[in-house]
Known about the structure:
The structure is a single chain. The protein is α/β, with parallel strands linked by helices. Helices cover 42% and strands 13% of the residues. It has eight helices and six strands; from the N terminus they run H-H-H-E-E-H-E-H-E-H-E-H-E-H. The protein has helices at residues 6-15, 22-34, 36-53, 70-73, 88-97, 125-130, 147-160, 185-193, and strands at 55-56, 63-64, 78-85, 102-106, 138-141, 166-169. The structure holds zinc ion (ZN). Zinc ion binds next to helix 4.
Amino acid sequence: METLSPLDRLLKLVGKLPGIGPRSARRVVLHLLKKRDALLQPLIDALIDVRDHLKTCTTCGNWDMTDPCQLCQNPKRDDSVLCVVADVADLWAMERSLAFQGRYHVLGGTLSALDGVQPEHLRLESLVKRCTTGVVREVVLALNVTIDGQTTAHYIASLLHPTGVKITRLASGVPVGGELDYLDDGTIHTAMQARMAV
Ligand SMILES: [Zn+2]
């Protein structure tokens, strides 16, 4: 097997990043080579820093440089509401929306018969534990509206039922800026189910 040159290795690695094919990989690598001081070195430093210091928050499952993470440490956030998300990407999406001011719980995936994801693979035990301290009053299930996401939501709802906490889920429906004609049937159906007074 031939050994790749460092440059080819870099091209190959960059090409493995999501959303980047061989063509984009060449553009990215060329850009890095042109901007060695301004971009390549800072990128190397940032990667090493993240590799050496990234932690998984033992409370919520978020990724951060500290454990507990900044979100868990923030005294301004509401301890009584817990938002359950499948992974860190969803937590970031919720944070970008500025729609939520409570705490999070990252499951680390969703139940999936197809992919063999069982309850013991998710951070469910710690979720139940957090819901039995008397601090949490409401759990918002912010899971994908897919079969796996909804299966997980039902499972968690039954798991948390004995704790007595209120369990809610995100409303789903017509997206802002969405035209009815372009929506799929499932979206229109749930939007109609969750209709509200005007
Ligand atoms: Zn945390």
